[in-house]
Specification:
Elements: H1 6-9, H2 22-33, E1 40-44, H3 51-63, H4 76-83, E2 89-93, H5 100-110, E3 120-125, H6 132-143, E4 149-155, H7 163-166, E5 170-173, H8 179-193, E6 196-197, H9 199-209, H10 213-227, E7 230-231, H11 233-240, H12 245-256, H13 260-272, H14 277-297, H15 308-314, H16 320-336, H17 343-356, E8 371-372, H18 392-411, H19 417-420, H20 426-429, E9 436-437, H21 443-446, H22 452-457, H23 465-473, H24 477-487, H25 490-493, H26 500-506, E10 510-514, E11 518-523, H27 526-534, H28 539-549, E12 554-559, H29 560-575, H30 602-610
Parallel strand pairs: 1-4, 1-5, 2-3, 3-4, 6-7, 11-12
Antiparallel strand pairs: 8-9, 10-11
Helix pairs in contact: 2-3, 3-4, 5-6, 8-9, 9-10, 9-11, 12-13, 13-17, 14-15, 14-16, 16-17, 18-29, 23-29
Length: 620
């Protein structure tokens, strides 16, 4: 006798054999017991979740002539349906019978009474493949079929079925089968087949099936053929290119330790073994998710993939926020795979982004320099620093600075920073951990402090952290409120010919600090920050900011990531009482609120819009 695949051999024969879908099983059983049989059913859900199997079981139940629970599986009708030769149970593949002519033939046959059973049951699989004309031809029959006819429509894509068809059916949504139910079903089959299989291998098979019982049994079939009745986890890994738990933990540890070279080598090894990087991405998401769940609950019973000891390995020097940010990076990368020409390149960049999340320097070659890192005490609020032993004016000044820093800190702890935290730049990545590289640095170079003049000479480059610190020290809440109020009118300038391009440049930027002479904005990337900073000497841009704020104010831009790093440095410098002096600018701060706005001539408007280099004004 020819070999029969496991998913065909062990197809459930009765409601008691169905794995999962208990809400559907219970409803159909009650309908049979109460003799409340509908004329049309729509079974929809993912592949391999039991739609066709339950349709056949239901067909047995409504035609069963046995006593007790139905189907009895012993009467003539039940046996005939199980063997697939019952004349009143008609299975139709809508993928190959999707035309109007096929539906007309079906309608002609529907009117004939059943030959053997009480009901004639039509099971139409993949019903979404039917054409619109075929649906419309079937519509009247679905709505008012003969009393002896039951239609069961099955589909994986219910959104493609006409709403008029759906409204005439009882709809049952099948869900993915839970991994525990799949594992239990596999264990039963293994006992019947006399096959040895480790618990870890069963768990992997259930995980690979992704909620589909048919997929699970197909995978088991392949593993039995490969491992010859003695299946271990490594057999499943080898067949389907799955990284082992140890491989994943080692890779994540290298990411946490910021060893870029080691990470790239491990990716090379995994790729050489045929590991599916898309699946590895989802596995890393699930690993990190379990560590976060355990941190919140301390309940080991909620761990499905790793043990408590393995959770501890992944928690070394990594707080929950960092791990959640890593999960965000992995999920964003997984979404981009569909359009990726090289999945491996995307995956490598993803891990490099994860290494950069905490702001610590990436270790490219460990032997070139000895790095000593001291992590400052983390605090959600800077106000605790006011409890130092200070008095008089110093306390008042400190509290003022703390208030500004708190305002900035609260605004930088929102979800908008999640994506921008992955943008790397050389100046900002090495600051916040107070990293000291033991190399020879000239003393005079180390003691340099950025000044306003230094900024004037090099405005196109990323701003130095020390310079931003000076800006934060001089900021105050009242000025920030004024700037925020001005920003509420920013959209009005988008429709003005003179100011549109300048308004669009700063639209969406975050006001993180403001002083009497300046505004500090945070944007999503360094390129945009540079563009804003380069406009500092642009007369048109200066005129626009004067129009917006009714005052001369310099605008400085940094990335969201750099702003968070500077706030951390601010806290550290507060502890050591070493904050710099507030910066002052010359010829800035004049109030223009009372002055009349200068009305530009048409020639000036054109020059503002296109630039002097692209326009030549000639006199006639």
């Amino acid at each position: 006798m020819a070999y029969k695949a496991l998913y065909r051999t062990y197809r459930p024969n009765g409601f008691q054999d169905v794995a999962g879908q208990q809400h559907i099983v219970k409803t159909l059983q009650n309908a049979v017991q109460q003799n409340k049989i509908a004329h049309a059913y729509l079974f929809c859900g993912p592949r391999g979740t039991g739609k066709t199997s339950i349709a056949k079981i239901f067909a047995k139940a409504v035609n069963c002539t046995g006593e007790g629970n139905k189907p009895c599986l012993t009467c003539e009708n039940c046996l005939a349906i199980t063997e697939g030769n019952h004349p009143d149970i008609v299975e139709i593949d809508a993928a190959s019978n999707n035309g109007v002519e096929e539906v007309r033939n079906l309608i002609e046959k529907v009117k004939y009474a059943p030959i053997k059973g009480k009901y004639k049951v039509y099971i139409i699989d993949e019903v979404h493949m039917m054409s619109t004309g075929a649906f419309n031809a079937l519509l009247k029959t679905i709505e008012e079929p003969p009393a002896h006819v039951i239609f069961i429509l099955a589909t994986t894509e219910p959104h493609k079925v006409l709403p008029t068809i759906i409204s005439r059916c009882q709809r049952y949504d099948f869900t993915k089968v839970p991994n525990n139910d799949i594992a239990e079903y596999i264990d039963k089959i293994l006992k019947k087949e006399a096959v040895n299989c480790s618990d870890e291998a069963v768990r992997l098979i259930a995980q690979l099936a992704d909620g589909g019982m048919r997929d699970a049994l197909s995978i088991l079939d392949q593993c039995i053929a490969y491992a010859q009745n003695n299946i271990e986890a490594h057999h499943v890994n080898e067949i389907y290119g799955i990284a082992t738990i140890e491989d994943k933990l080692t890779l994540l540890e290298s990411v946490f330790q910021k060893e870029a070279g080691k990470v790239l080598n491990e990716i090379e090894e995994l790729t050489a073994k045929g590991t599916d990087l898309k699946r590895l991405t989802t596995d890393l998401i699930n690993l990190l998710k379990e560590t976060v769940i355990y941190d919140y609950t301390k309940d080991a019973s909620l761990l499905r993939i790793i043990s408590v000891e393995e959770v501890q390995r992944l928690k070394v020097n990594n707080d929950i926020d960092k791990r959640l940010n890593m999960i965000d990076v992995l999920m964003q990368t997984f979404d981009k795979y569909r359009n990726a020409a090289s999945v491996r390149s995307y995956f490598e960049v993803c891990l490099l982004k994860m290494m950069n999340i905490s702001g610590e320097p990436v270790i490219l070659q460990k032997n070139e320099a000895t790095t000593v890192s001291h992590k400052p005490t983390e605090s959600s609020d800077l106000s605790e620093f006011t409890e130092t032993k200070q008095n008089g004016k110093q306390v008042e000044e400190t509290e003022k600075i703390v208030q500004v820093a708190n305002d900035v800190s609260r605004e930088t702890n929102n979800d908008e920073f999640a994506e921008s935290a992955f943008v790397s730049d050389d100046d900002s990545s090495s600051e916040p951990e107070l990293t000291m590289v033991m190399e020879m640095i000239p003393e005079e170079q180390a003691s340099e402090t950025p000044s306003a003049q230094a900024y004037e000479n090099k405005s196109a480059n990323p701003l130095k952290d020390e310079f931003i610190l000076q800006l934060l020290v001089g900021a105050n809440k009242q000025e920030k409120k004024k700037v925020n109020d001005a920003f509420t009118h920013l959209d009005d300038y988008l429709y003005e010919l003179n100011w549109a391009k300048h308004a669009s440049l700063i639209k969406g930027a975050q006001n993180i600090a403001s002083g009497e002479q300046y505004v500090v904005l945070a944007v999503e990337n360094q390129a945009r920050a540079n563009e804003i900073n380069e406009n500092d000497k642009n007369n048109e841009f200066i005129s626009f900011t004067r129009e917006l704020f009714h005052q001369d104010k310099k605008i400085f831009a940094v990335t969201f990531e750099q702003s968070k790093q500077v706030i951390q440095i601010f806290k550290e410098r507060m502890l050591s009482n070493s904050l710099p002096e507030a910066i002052q600018f010359e010829n800035v701060g004049k109030n223009y609120e009372a002055e009349e706005a200068h009305e530009l001539t048409p020639e000036e408007s054109i020059l503002n819009l296109f630039g002097e280099s692209h326009v030549t004004v000639t006199e006639e």
